[in-house]
Write a structure and sequence with these properties.
This protein has about 70 residues and is mostly helical. It has helices spanning about 1-30, 35-70. It has 2 domains: about 1-30; about 35-73.
Length: about 70
């Protein structure tokens, strides 16, 4: 009796897993992998690095020009 209950439950779980995998891979086949999101995050990281570097360079130039003004006095 318990064998049949466990067997039916196992088959049901395997069917659910198979169905979800089939759904996942079908959507991946139809719509493609999530490359767009990956590219979007890479662009954000590169853009953030660029603006941070630009900000640091601008502040470094301002401080160095202030230092040159003070040293010429």
């Amino acid at each position: 009796m318990w064998f049949w209950i466990a067997g039916c439950t196992g088959i049901y779980l395997i069917f659910i897993i198979f169905e979800e995998l089939n759904y996942f891979f079908w959507n991946r086949y139809v719509y493609g992998p999530k490359q767009v999101l990956r590219k979007k995050w890479i662009r954000r990281i590169v853009r953030g690095y660029y603006f941070t570097k630009k900000y640091i360079d601008r502040n470094t130039q301002q401080h160095s020009s202030n230092y040159k003004k003070m040293s010429s006095l």
